[in-house]
Specification:
2 domains, about 130 residues, about 0% strand, mainly alpha, elongated
């Protein structure tokens, strides 16, 4: 029994000494691994941030291009209309103006009818709510 206890004590002391020696080497190895993983994580984060930044730049660039294209098309349409107006006789110009006015009048009449319809629906809803 004494031998077993003595062997356990000796084994414990030697294993703790070996563990201390191994631990310094193991700690260095662990620190290298941790540092490597930390660098990998930082690199992934940097790449992710760079991708987000590039995506935002691309979106801004596409928006600027879209606005420039819309502006170009609008200017082209205005030039085309101005060119067409130059070639028109006064009666044709008057007819064109009348047609634009009729289109606007039609639009406003549709809006008025829509508002009247909604007002009727609201009144009907209010009557239903009063009955309950």
């Amino acid at each position: 029994m004494k031998r077993i206890v003595l062997l356990l004590v000796v084994f414990g002391l030697t294993s703790s000494l070996c563990a201390q020696e191994m631990s310094s080497e193991g700690q260095k190895e662990a620190m290298k691994i941790l540092e490597k993983k930390r660098k990998e994580i930082l690199e992934k984060d940097r790449l992710r941030e760079e991708a987000k930044r590039k995506e935002a730049e691309n979106i801004e660039k596409m928006e600027r291009e879209r606005i420039a294209e819309e502006k170009r098309l609008k200017e082209e349409e205005e030039r085309r209309i101005a060119e067409a107006m130059k070639n028109l006789t006064p009666i044709e110009k008057l007819d064109m103006t009348r047609q634009k006015a009729m289109d606007r009048l039609d639009f406003y009449e549709k809006v008025v009818r829509s508002v009247e319809r909604e007002e009727k629906e609201v009144k009907a809803y209010e009557e239903i709510m009063k009955l309950d």
